[in-house]
Each structure stands twice: as structure tokens, then as C-alpha cells.
Specification:
alpha+beta, 4-stranded antiparallel β-sheet, 21% strand, binds zinc ion
Length: 95
């Protein structure tokens, strides 16, 4: 799936996310987004990032300077997926 990026750096984070994120959740078909958590990215301006891709292929990258900030945002985003009635709620998970 070709991604659509705001800039070259976003594309680099996205490539890393496809390679194997530290955590990931959701998908572009049944969710609002596929989201991936990256911790300790080498050779990139910010060490930590969350990469979100929507069904149109648009890639949104949010970067963090500390792992704590990244984990706090990641937890909040996971909650959106996993809340009752959410796209990744337990009951909707049997497919
Ligand atoms: Zn979801």
C-alpha cells in the first residue's frame, strides 16, 4: 500500500513502522487507522514516534523526545480502539 506523506522524514518513520513497530493496533479497513508505536528510532530527528495510516493511505506521524511522552499518547490512542463499542473492542474482535 503506497503511503501519502507530508515530508521525507514522515516516510522514514513509516518505513520503520512497517518493518516492525514496538506495538501496533488497528487496521485501515475496520478501524479509523492502523497505528504503530516506535521506540528508539535510530538516525531520525526524534527518538520516538507514533505513525498512523488511514484507509486513504494518508500517514500522520507524531514524534516525541521522551519515551514517557510517547507511551502516554500511545495509551490514549489504544483506549480509543479498545473502549467499549470501539473498533477494536473485545466483542468486535471475533473475525
Ligand atoms: Zn481499532
Amino acid at each position: 500500500m503506497p503511503g501519502k506523506f507530508r515530508n521525507k522524514t514522515d516516510e522514514q518513520y513509516w518505513t520503520l513502522a512497517l518493518d516492525g513497530p514496538d506495538e501496533q493496533i488497528g487496521d485501515v479497513q475496520s478501524c479509523h487507522a492502523w497505528e504503530a508505536l516506535l521506540i528508539d528510532c535510530d538516525d531520525l530527528p526524534h527518538a520516538h514516534a507514533i505513525v498512523a495510516t488511514d484507509s486513504q493511505g494518508f500517514v500522520d506521524v507524531e514524534t516525541f523526545d521522551t519515551q514517557w511522552q510517547a507511551m502516554r499518547e500511545w495509551t490514549a490512542r489504544k483506549l480509543v480502539h479498545e473502549q467499549p463499542g470501539g473498533c477494536c473492542a473485545e466483542s468486535a474482535d471475533e473475525h
